[in-house]
Amino acid sequence: MAINLQDGEIITYTGKLHWWVYFWALVWAVICVAVFISIDRGFVWNLVLSLAAATPLAIVHIQKKMAEFVITNLRLWIEWGILSRTTLDIPLIKINDVIIKRSMIQMILNCGNIGIMTGNDFPTGVKDLENPKDFLAALNKARAAATGK
């Protein structure tokens, strides 16, 4: 974890991406395997199909492992990315509202998208977060403690 805690700051919740993020990469891998099985055109063609199937899965796996979502008693800290990293460091007192948006499949799988509203016009989005209601509860609890409400 790359977060540098300030004096008196403690981590109250850590979140992660749901396994649902693998879905479209798995669909692509199944299509590549089906083509691989149905068409045998030699070693080079098989190698290309194998790489085409494995590359999206590897990328998604690395993205899932590299994404970090941390709530402390002072701030919300989010970091993601492979070749370029994006870091959001939002003080809890600056968060105005939190929106959870989930499709039917996300509700069944207990994952969802979260939008964090601060002073700007557009929410800061997190897609396919695991246990979004737990994340929201922990964030609201930390916000209440930080603001004294």
Can you describe this structure?
This protein is α+β, with helices and mostly antiparallel strands and about 150 residues long. The protein has 4 helices and 7 strands, in the order E-H-H-E-E-E-E-H-E-E-H. The model has no long low-confidence stretch (mean pLDDT about 90).
Q: What is the topological layout?
A:
Elements: E1 11-15, H1 23-38, H2 43-66, E2 68-72, E3 75-80, E4 86-91, E5 97-101, H3 104-109, E6 111-117, E7 124-130, H4 132-147
Antiparallel strand pairs: 1-2, 2-3, 3-4, 5-6, 6-7
What would you say about this model in short?
By secondary structure, this protein is an alpha+beta fold. It is built from 4 helices and 7 strands. The strands form 2 sheets. It has a 4-stranded antiparallel beta sheet. It has a 3-stranded antiparallel beta sheet with strand order 5-6-7.
Alpha carbon gap, first and last residue: 30 Å
How many distinct helices? 4
Mean pLDDT: 90
Largest sheet, order of strands side by side? 1-2-3-4
User: Total strand count, please?
Assistant: 7
Shape: elongated
**Element-by-element helix/strand order:** EHHEEEEHEEH
Q: Name the poorly predicted regions.
A: none
**SS content category:** alpha+beta
In percent, how much strand structure appears in the residues? 25-35%
Helix share bin: 40-55%
Question: In angstroms, what is the radius of gyration?
Answer: 19 Å
Q: For the report, how would you describe the main beta sheet?
A: 4 strands, antiparallel
